[in-house]
Amino acid sequence: MSQSKGSPATIAQNRRARHEYFIEEKVEAGLALLGWEVKSLRAGKCNLTDAYILIKNSEAWVIGMHITPLLAASTHVVADPTRTRKLLLKRRELDRLTGDIQQKGHTCVPLSMYWSHGRAKLEIAVVKGKQLHDKRDSEKQRDWQREKARVMRDRG
């Protein structure tokens, strides 16, 4: 079973989102999936890089998430790897997300997908875009933390 770095239940992570945006608020959402999609997720065949969340008619949808169909998928099902999938959220969470993304410069993107009690969950976040200098600052900070950990490890 091929899985990304992180916890053993992690299916996929969106590392680009963590680089491109400031993460302001995180929410866990369920997904309405088809049988072949669940089988593909169990095999780790998911990509969140270009995905984003759209809230329309008081429902949340994930667009651009790619789940690669397995070769052994059922023959009577036409598998669409990038179909729009519905997110399962409580009304209160949905209303809060709607209010948050209506602010200027805010959007909603998926951060990671993982298994929780046998069900696929999507961690979504309200994010704000970073400017180029913000990305450089984040990179410098990350390098400094890595160097600091290296020095402490070598001393002790």
What integer value in Å does the Rg equal? 18 Å
The residue-averaged pLDDT reads 84
- Can you identify the CATH class? Mainly Beta
Q: What proportion of the residues form beta strands (DSSP E)?
A: 35-45%
How large is the count of helical segments? Answer: 4
CATH topology, which one? Small Protein B, Chain: A
The tally of domains stands at 1
Subcellular location: Cytoplasm
Protein name: SsrA-binding protein
Main location: cytoplasm
GO molecular function, one term: RNA binding
Molecular structure report:
This protein is of the alpha+beta class and 156 residues long. The protein has one domain: Beta Barrel (Small Protein B, Chain: A). It has 4 helices and 9 strands. A 7-stranded antiparallel beta sheet has the order 1-8-9-2-7-5-4. The protein is globular.
